[in-house]
TrEMBL record:
It comes from the Bacteria. Residues 223-266, 285-305 are annotated as: Disordered. The lineage of its organism: Bacteria, Bacillati, Actinomycetota, Actinomycetes, Micromonosporales. This is Protein RecA. It comes from Micromonospora haikouensis. Residues 248-266 have a biased composition (Low complexity).
Length: 305
């Protein structure tokens, strides 16, 4: 009997572990997240059955959608199914760039009045469910959905105001990078994320991360511009340069000498000359006024002496 008791106690001791020891058997209940976000979550990952809310925050800060993409990326790469409900502006291209597998992503842009039913159905079969919270959702509906997620082992990520979440994440500050002195493009944003919750997450935490992640938006410095070469890569030797105006006054055109005029008139026979009266009717000729200045290029009629 005593031997049986010792064997039984030893077998029972093998099933008991200290609370501080790692739980290899429960590793499957944890979904991975980006390394930059592990410090915000009590379990350093998305624990199945938990509710992790993402507060929308103030419009001038933004960053909520980028934070949602960052939460889903690693779990999607690991093979988990994800769903996004009630976010019509959710971009599939941005999700793919963040690392989310589109073949394991379900989108319900407009759930309509059946929002609780749609979210509950997705909780039953999807690993991570992101749901934009309508303003009309009651506390009883929110509690039932959170309890369903605990029962099914899904991770519920409400996007908006949600009371009673295990952890609530919110972007509180953000600074863009990429713009220089009148040039450049927006490349990435350094955001400050605040985490608060209950239980192990009761103590608030703050971290600064790049959204999108630093691995996707690393800024490569430009090589120094060599002398004699412009910023566009062309040689400065062939570029056009502005030429200052010359200080030398333009020369006036002198009239031909008188002997040249006489020789010109002798070269044309008088028989070839056309009488002016035959070419232009005299009735149409208007004598110029004596006070009017001469016009450049106008014809001058010369009558007989």
């Amino acid at each position: 009997m005593a031997g049986r008791m010792v064997v039984g106690s030893a077998a029972l001791a093998g099933l008991v572990r200290p609370a501080s020891a790692p739980d290899p058997a429960g590793a499957h209940r944890m979904l991975p997240v980006a390394a930059e976000l592990t410090g915000l979550l009590p379990s350093r990952g998305l624990r199945r059955g938990s509710t992790i809310a993402v507060a929308a925050g103030q419009p001038r800060h933004g960053g909520g959608t980028s934070l949602v993409l960052a939460l889903l990326a690693e779990a999607s790469r690991a093979g988990s199914w994800c769903a996004v409900v009630g976010v019509p502006t959710f971009g599939a291209g941005a999700a793919a760039e963040a690392g989310i597998a589109l073949d394991r992503l379900a989108l319900v842009p407009q759930p309509g009045p059946d929002w609780p039913t749609v979210v509950a159905a997705l909780i039953d079969g999807v690993d991570v469910v992101v749901a934009a919270v309508p303003a009309t959702v009651s506390a009883s509906v929110a509690n039932r959905l959170a309890a369903r997620a605990r029962q099914r082992g899904s991770v519920l990520v409400p996007y908006g105001r949600w009371d009673g979440a295990d952890v609530t994440l919110q972007v509180v500050r953000g600074v863009w990078e990429g713009l220089g002195q009148g040039r450049g493009r927006l490349r990435r944003r350094e955001v400050t994320i605040c985490a608060r919750g209950r239980g192990a997450a009761a103590r608030p935490k703050e971290i600064k991360v790049w959204l999108p992640g630093d691995a996707l938006t690393r800024v490569i410095p430009r090589p120094p511009v060599a002398s004699g070469v412009s910023a566009t890569g062309r040689s400065a030797a062939g570029r056009l340069r502005p030429v200052p105006p010359s200080s030398v006054a333009p020369r006036s055109v002198e009239s031909p000498p008188s002997h040249a005029a006489s020789s010109l008139s002798s070269a044309v026979p008088l028989s070839a000359a056309v009488p002016l009266s035959a070419a232009v009717p005299l009735s149409a000729a208007v004598p110029p006024s004596a006070d009017a200045p001469p016009r450049r290029g106008a014809l001058t009629m010369v009558g007989p002496a």
